[in-house]
């Protein structure tokens, strides 16, 4: 029993000394001299004291291992984003931190933990500094992309770098995106696009102006005369205006035109309906004077059907015009400006149309009365 108890004490003491050496950062066996009386005190109480001490050291070792692994994992992640040599950095802290030898324990000493914390702080600071450098390069890069309508293929190579502009995704940046090579490549791309911008600015101004003219044409209004192509090109050539400012001015005009186009959409639909009805009315007038309209051909039958539909549409014209006028007046009241259509105020055009229809109706009534009188005169004779 004494021999067995001595062996238990020896094993526990050896494990305690081993863990203590790992925590202290020294080699096992450097300080393993037994305390006085340890060889004679083999009681259960003494054994339980040793076991309690061993349990405490094992728990501390586990916690230290967990901290070391956390720090090493964070160092690896930071090195991956920064494009730095992970092995070289952890070797400076302790060579055993990256070795996969199961027989060799990982360093868990206070010195190792302190150095790892310092490395993490240094790499985190470097990450923040490089992220700021990359952000300074990416912001003008994105502006140049938008300004020059760069194709998706050209942007794709820098999409990972552009992720630095999204703060929520800063912690999951791609591998090597904050390396000095990546930052330098982004800065070189900005320089290249800046040189290219000067040559393509005229083309871009004309393209944006054409877009503005198309929007205004669809609304039947005149575009802003301050950025007509001839004037814009002359300003760029003379150097009196910054091309970027000119582009921004045209983009602002496009935004306003799109907003107005949306507000005019309902009225424009009513205008198209009114114009279609007017076209049908004109066609019906021409059809009514056609002497062959009652012939037996297929075209004549189709024209008769169209004439029936046209009469129904024409009867709705007064209601369409009144509805259109009320909507237009409401739009003008809300926007505090006249609703223009092909350079004329729409309300005035509609008023003129109503007066013209009244004159036309009066003329038709007069012609019908004359025709009736001629018929009566002919019958009387």
Automatic annotation (TrEMBL):
Q: Name the family the entry cites.
A: Belongs to the MAP65/ASE1 family.
Q: What Gene Ontology molecular-function terms does this entry list?
A: microtubule binding
Superkingdom of the source? Eukaryota
Name of the featured protein: 65-kDa microtubule-associated protein 6
**Annotated coiled-coil segments of the chain:** none
What is one Pfam family matched by this protein?
MAP65_ASE1
- Does this entry carry the keyword Cell membrane? no
Which InterPro entries does the UniProt entry name for this protein?
A: MAP65_Ase1_PRC1
The UniProt entry's GO biological process terms, in alphabetical order, are: microtubule cytoskeleton organization
* Organism annotation: Aegilops tauschii subsp. strangulata
């Amino acid at each position: 029993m004494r021999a067995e108890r001595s062996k238990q004490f020896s094993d526990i003491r050896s494990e305690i000394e081993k863990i203590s050496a790992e925590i202290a950062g020294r080699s096992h066996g450097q300080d393993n001299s037994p305390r006085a009386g340890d060889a004679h005190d083999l009681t259960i109480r003494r054994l339980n004291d040793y076991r309690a001490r061993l349990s405490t050291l094992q728990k501390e070792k586990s916690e230290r291992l967990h901290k070391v692994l956390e720090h090493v994992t964070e160092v690896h992640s930071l090195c991956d984003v920064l494009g730095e040599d992970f092995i070289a950095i952890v070797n400076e802290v302790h060579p055993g931190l990256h070795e996969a030898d199961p027989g060799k324990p990982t360093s868990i000493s206070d010195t190792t933990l302190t150095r790892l914390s310092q490395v993490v702080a240094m790499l985190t600071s470097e990450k923040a500094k490089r992220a700021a450098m990359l952000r300074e390069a990416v912001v003008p890069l994105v502006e140049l992309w938008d300004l020059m309508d760069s194709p998706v293929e050209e942007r794709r190579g820098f999409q990972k770098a552009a992720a630095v502009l999204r703060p929520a995704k800063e912690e999951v940046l791609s591998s090597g995106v904050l390396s000095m090579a990546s930052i330098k490549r982004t800065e070189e791309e900005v320089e290249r696009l800046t040189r290219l911008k000067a040559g393509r600015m005229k083309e871009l101004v004309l393209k944006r102006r054409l877009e503005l003219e198309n929007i205004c044409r669809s609304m039947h209004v005149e575009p802003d005369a301050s950025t007509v192509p001839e004037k814009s090109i002359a300003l760029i050539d003379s150097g009196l205006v910054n091309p970027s400012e000119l582009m921004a001015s045209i983009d602002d005009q496009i935004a306003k035109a799109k907003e107005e186009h949306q507000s005019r959409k309902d009225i424009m639909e009513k205008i198209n309906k009114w114009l279609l009805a007017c076209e049908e009315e004109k066609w019906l007038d021409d059809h009514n004077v056609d002497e062959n309209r009652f012939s037996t051909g297929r075209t004549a039958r189709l024209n008769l059907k169209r004439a029936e539909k046209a009469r129904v549409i024409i009867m709705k014209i007064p209601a369409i015009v009144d509805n259109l006028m009320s909507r237009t007046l409401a739009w003008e009241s809300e926007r505090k400006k006249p609703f223009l259509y092909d350079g004329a105020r729409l309300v005035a055009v509609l008023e003129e149309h109503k007066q013209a229809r009244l004159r036309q109706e009066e003329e038709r009534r007069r012609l019908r009365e004359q025709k009736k009188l001629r018929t009566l005169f002919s019958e009387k004779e």
